[in-house]
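Quick one - first record:
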Amino acid sequence: MANFSRSERIAQQIQRELAELLRTEVKDPGIGMVTITDVEVSRDHSHAKVFYTFLGSEMEREAIAKALKRAAGFLHSQLFHRLKLRVVPQLHFEYDVSVERGAYLSHLIDEAVKGDS
């Protein structure tokens, strides 16, 4: 069994809870279909980077970023009630470009393979 640090366990728990909260509790239509891809918690557990992605345009990305920023306080308070922690990290949302980058690289590979045929 893997030896996870406390920060990793907290990050996984926050990721699960945020996914559930976004799906069931947040009523902001600006958030839409956001997927939480990863959470990184600082060593002192005071801050958490929450990486997310979604399917949509650049304009929608900006609207979603603003909506998540607006919802951060509500989500923090909900996490405080759901998690059994003395300190719940402040949430900082960041768009996860790795999914787009992976799709782009896959497309490039497909084009290169077609070119070899």
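second record:
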Amino acid sequence: MTDLPIGKIVKSNSHIDYVCQVFGQGETLHPPVPSAYGFGSFVAVELETAGEPDRALVGLVYNTLLMNPEFGALGPRLSPRSEVEIFSPDYLAETATLLGVIAIGWLDGVGQVHQGVPAAVATVNCLVRRLERTELLTFHADGTGQPQLRYTPLLLAHNHALVAPLLLAVIDQLGELFPLSRSRLTVMRNNIAWKSIVQPAG
């Protein structure tokens, strides 16, 4: 069963860097819980390309931004939140949770997975959902039972302070999915952790 959408694409910062707005109360029957879009979550961005071979981008949640119109409003609160929900629901709709999603691959229409920079692009309002466990396994399996992370250089080239913690979170997830490869993944994890400490200091 496909996971329910957690939000929709509202903008992009580059060809692979997207912004997803998480669905809130009133926007969907089943608003997602925070654990569904936590840091390091793998997501699928469903493409609106009828007849095209690519059906979804695979991305990683690497950042979160909260939008709150109440911040900076120094005036008195004339109504409690419970009354605002009834009399001014549009005001509450201005609050939003935005996710930074970096595309690291794609799923095509014939069941094949690809890691790297996708040629296809998402459009505004494309639905974003959590990647299913079977999709996550298929996306990383190299055919020999070992995980592949060909998108690592892509992440490292993304000049963002959270890239190193993101890679560590990914490796921890893959350690659970590929228990026979934990020793190899541990070596990679230790290398990234060491570089994340040494390089800023150097």
